[in-house]
Amino acid sequence: MAVERARRASRNRRQHHRARLEKGVQYYRNQRLHTASVANISEGGLCLQGSTGSLMVGDVLKLFVTLPPQGVRRRDRLCLLQGQVVWTRNNRAGVRFIDPPLENTLELRTYVKLAA
Predict the structure, then answer these.
(1) CATH of the domain at 92
(2) 86 lies in which domain range?
(3) Which DSSP category does 68 fall into?
(4) With contact defined as beta carbons under 8 Å apart, do 62 and 78 qualify?
(5) pLDDT tens digit sequence for 19-39
(6) How far is residue 12 CA from its own chain's centroid?
């Protein structure tokens, strides 16, 4: 009971709505290219899952996120973002975007809104 209450409280603290993203993401860390899956994404960050075991809190990543077509846009949209790992747990990592370009923020906001 207390665990469920804590989970609900943690969800309520989130600043941005999240959406699932069925595409993988590529990222550079220490001048090496890695690939991982995305558990969820928001305009403020994303949750990586899969091969994230070597990531550590504080790591800065260059991310290549491909958003699927939405609305009138008929092609995938590549967003180049920079992020910082803010937590790691059980082969997952939370990444907060660092100063995302306005265009990418708007693309992410639209994707999350339409995917919900």
Answers:
(1) 2.40.10.220
(2) 18-115
(3) P
(4) no
(5) 888 788 999 988 899 999 999
(6) 18
